[in-house]
Amino acid sequence: MDKNRVIIFDTTLRDGEQSPGASMNLEEKVRIALALEEMGVDVIEAGFPIASNGDFEAVEAVARAVKTSVICGLARATKGDIERCAEAVKPAGRGRIHTFLSTSPLHMKYKLQMEPEKVLEKISESVAYARNLTDDVEWSAEDGSRTEHDFLCTCVEAAIKAGARTINIPDTVGYAIPDEYAALIAMLFNRVPNIDKAIISVHCHNDLGLAVANSLAAVGKGARQIECTINGLGERAGNAAMEEIVMALRTRPDLLPYKSGVKTENITRASRLVSTITGFVVQPNKAIVGKNAFAHESGIHQDGVLKHAQTYEIMTPESVGLNRSSLVMGKHSGRAAFKAKLKDLGYELGDNAVEDAFTRFKDLADRKKDVFDEDIVALVDDAVVRG
Ligand code: KIV
Ligand code: ZN
Pyruvate carboxyltransferase domain: which residues (predicted)? Predict the structure, then answer.
């Protein structure tokens, strides 16, 4: 594989579903998985098969339906979890078992109540067990970003030795900042002797709003798999948003010379599908997929965009699957935008009529925050009726 190719691992159906209130049924999960496959996502984490029969059946159904992407299931470091996961992903053309164990002092002491030596032993055992059931095993150091460095190196080395092909270093609680997280990944490349035998993956949560920045910083230090979700869905403040990651790679090849295989033109469709199915409304000013992401309200911006789109747009709406940027009419809109809007709406008015309509539009905009297309149609039609 091209050394600058970044594997996109989507976990909308697993970590995304862990957003309180975002559960999806089997048929909905299959629809989302097919949209992800069509988009060119490399790995789809379809669920946590041991969690419930419903989860198991959904992972199995996704594994049957999807033909090209790798289908992954999550498993704790126990034989029961790993076997159930192997069974669920079995119908997939390419199945992956993703097993994990916490490695930070806090998690080992309070959550696992296990000594580090025992944790290390369980890592080797669970990865080797999973490797007996499939070739494609990923191991995650849960709370990896808060793990003591010497111990993290030892754990990663052991997981690779036991057969893990992908090593994931999650920022489970979204605590890291970009320089620190990048340094952690660089440290692993410098210190773990067999690191080149595995793909290093990142899985960043967004508690400080840094999930995408952390993921991209880690890619700069050699990570080649990014775990992410559509619309940034996920536990608490969510995961790194896939649409932001792939559009950053597409928009800034000068500073981010890495490629994903995602067809960015499918982004808007996938975002709307996930939002409709989960009932999670995308905030209007959300990067890439928010309703205002390509909307221009101020007169100066509207005038600029009408003269040359790049004045205020760093990517085209078409590149994310939108037809065109929208001019949102409001009190800051100028004559040029108003004329363009009239043209869009199918009106061809003489100069006096445009002037008259523009004056009445400005009066309306003073009273009403957003002036919708229907308002403009109403005010122009009203003028025509009044003669
Ligand atoms: O955030 C996390 O650490 C996880 C792991 C299970 C990969 O979701
Ligand atoms: Zn997570």
Answer: 6-268
